[in-house]
Specification:
Blueprint lengths: L2 H30 L4 H15 L11 H4 L2 H4 L1 H10 L1
Length: 84
């Protein structure tokens, strides 16, 4: 048997396996999933929220606006000790 024949047979076997598992998965989902009016409302709410762009605001002036993670972490304490 040539290599191309073996590959073709393996491909066919794999396709059959995938096809059978996909069909079984669809049947399982179909049996267990029930669409309700509450789910429909939640989906519409999600769609609406995804259509609204986020609102970005400038940081408010003050000491917290100019602070970085370096300023509030151990690095800030170490740099202060080194400068003393």
């Amino acid at each position: 048997m040539m290599e191309s024949d073996r590959l073709s047979a393996r491909k066919s076997t794999l396709e059959d396996h995938i096809r059978s598992r996909t069909k079984a998965s669809r049947e399982t989902i179909k049996d267990k999933f029930h669409w309700t009016s509450e789910a429909a409302k939640a989906l519409e709410d999600l769609k609406h929220r995804l259509q609204i762009p986020p609102i970005l605001t400038a940081p408010s002036p003050g000491p917290s606006a100019s602070r970085t993670t370096f300023d509030v972490g151990a690095g800030h304490r170490m740099s202060r000790q080194l400068s003393l």
